[in-house]
Amino acid sequence: MREHGLRATTGRLAALDYLHTHPHSSVADVHGALARRLPSLTLQSVHNIAHDLTECGILRRIDLPDAGSARYETRTGDNHHHVQCVVCHRIEDVDCVVGAAPCLSPDDARGMRLLEAAVTFRGICEECDREGGAREGAVPSATESRRSAAAR
Entry cofactor note text (predicted)? Predict the structure, then answer.
């Protein structure tokens, strides 16, 4: 943190440690995990910490569909993407096949120099698929879709 011009406060260190072991967590997740140990750490403080650490490149902010709120991770400086379950909303990292950013380029960048392409793969995790999409809002498995089509 000091290399980035930030003070290494107890709250920043605790939040960074939590996010290192719990990637893709929201500010509310971080606050909830640290509140008992650091009762003076407010939700607004954690928002400020996440903002400061993102601005200096220590954290990466990700905004994914159906995630509810921004998520944060310590894996920065590479060109990885994410896969998200559409049922339970679990998020995992996936390495970029191409490697270098941006891994995708539009036909016309409208005069902009591209820095990155944020790719989110969406699917159903094995656990949710085994449950047969029983959760609310679930997308049916390929097998269930074929059965349904055959029944028609």
Answer: Binds 1 zinc ion per subunit.
The answer to whether residues 52 and 6 touch, using CB atoms and an 8 Å cutoff, is yes
| Residue 103 assigned ligand-binding role | no
User: Pairing relation of β-strands 81-85 and 120-123?
Assistant: parallel
150 pLDDT tier (thresholds 50, 70, 90): very low
CB atoms within 10 A of CB 19: 25
Show the DSSP H helices in the chain as ranges. Answer: 10-21, 27-34, 43-55, 126-130, 142-151
Residue 125 is labelled as binding a ligand: yes
**Poorest-pLDDT segment among 43-57, 60-74, 89-103:** 89-103
- 88 labelled ligand-binding: yes
Q: What is the CATH number of domain 1-77?
A: 1.10.10.10
User: What is the pLDDT of the chain when averaged over all its residues?
Assistant: 85
